[in-house]
Write a structure and sequence with these properties.
single chain; about 325 residues; alpha/beta; Rossmann fold; 6-stranded mixed β-sheet; 4-stranded parallel β-sheet; about 35% helix; about 15% strand
């Protein structure tokens, strides 16, 4: 281990852990990548760094510029980290559906916030579209770069690195990759690279049961931050995916709480959805299968939310 030159070099190379206690008998092996070990406690540090450095490489972002982004999940904190490390002023359009912890973290890292109201703290298509349009208008200001995460393909390079980490850490034993869909970038980038390693890889996408648009359903309100925007994201590639599973907010929260109590793994709601789906797949495939998914962030981001707000603190 050597000292890093700056915080951005601390992104990635997160541990991978085998689940023990939340698995039913006869279930396959389920491995979870602990992305909460990244500097802001989220896998989104990877994509934020890739988006900003991709813009720098292309000349779209230069010294003296400001950055604009919209976010209903952890992307805002991650972009704020990268911009603080590189010295870019940042304006984030977010929502009160994002946890107080995330919004405070963005501000602590120097971001200016515009907050779009939600419907009772739920993620909806209309709210997401309002955030995007507000960010688009802000991006019209001179010397401004809009990361525009739903369309930014630079993030895929970051997730290819994530896939290589998984492949190395598992010794090349990955039968199924399971991941929730927000922008679609993490599933697309990781699955594409893993399938280059293993052409027989099975890929399972997760979406909220209340807003199952990838499965052809109608958009609806849910409380799984960071996934299920209410429309099919531009980076979504259905040809990569073998199966789409739906997980309800209540079931995702329940599994996240179980992970904390039974596995000592403290993660957010979308991580609960990932694990619940991964366990379903591993149970169906049996003990010889290895299923990999992501604990996409830390539960510390959700202490004020319905996920952990019931705790007596």
């Amino acid at each position: 281990m050597h000292a890093k030159n700056n915080v951005l070099q601390a992104i990635g190379n997160t541990p991978i852990v085998q689940l023990q206690k939340v698995l039913p008998p006869g279930c396959g092996r389920v491995l979870v990548k602990l992305e909460g070990a990244n500097p802001t406690g989220s896998m989104k540090d990877r994509m934020a760094k890739a988006m900003i450095e991709g813009a720098e490489a292309s000349g779209s972002l230069r010294a003296g510029y400001s950055v604009v982004e919209y976010t209903g999940g952890s992307t805002g904190t991650s972009v704020a980290l990268v911009c603080a490390a590189k010295g870019y002023p940042l304006h984030i359009v977010t929502t009160d559906a994002a946890s107080k912890e995330k919004r405070a973290h963005m501000q602590a890292l120097g971001a200016e916030l515009t907050i779009i109201p939600s419907e009772g703290g739920s993620v909806t298509k209309e709210m997401t579209e309002t955030m995007i349009e507000t960010a688009r208008q802000l991006s019209q200001q001179p010397a401004t770069y809009w990361t525009n995460q739903f369309y930014n393909i630079n993030q895929l390079t970051a997730y290819r690195v994530l896939a290589d980490e998984i492949w190395h850490q598992t010794g090349g034993k990955v039968d199924v990759f399971v991941q929730s869909v927000g922008t679609g970038g993490s599933l697309r980038g990781t699955a594409t690279r893993l399938r280059q390693h293993n052409p027989k890889l099975r890929v399972v996408a997760i979406e909220p049961a209340e807003s199952a648009v990838l499965s052809g359903g109608e958009p609806g309100a849910h409380k799984i931050e960071g996934m299920g925007p209410g429309f099919v994201p531009p980076l979504w590639d259905p040809t990569l995916v073998d199966e789409i599973l739906q997980v309800s907010t209540a079931d995702a929260m329940d599994m996240a709480r179980r992970l904390a109590r039974e596995e000592a793994l403290f993660a957010g709601t979308s991580s609960g959805a990932n694990v619940l789906a991964a366990v379903r797949v591993a149970e169906m495939l049996g003990p010889d299968a290895t299923v990999v998914t992501l604990l996409v962030d830390t539960g510390l981001k959700y202490l004020s939310t319905e996920q952990y707000g019931h705790l007596q603190i």
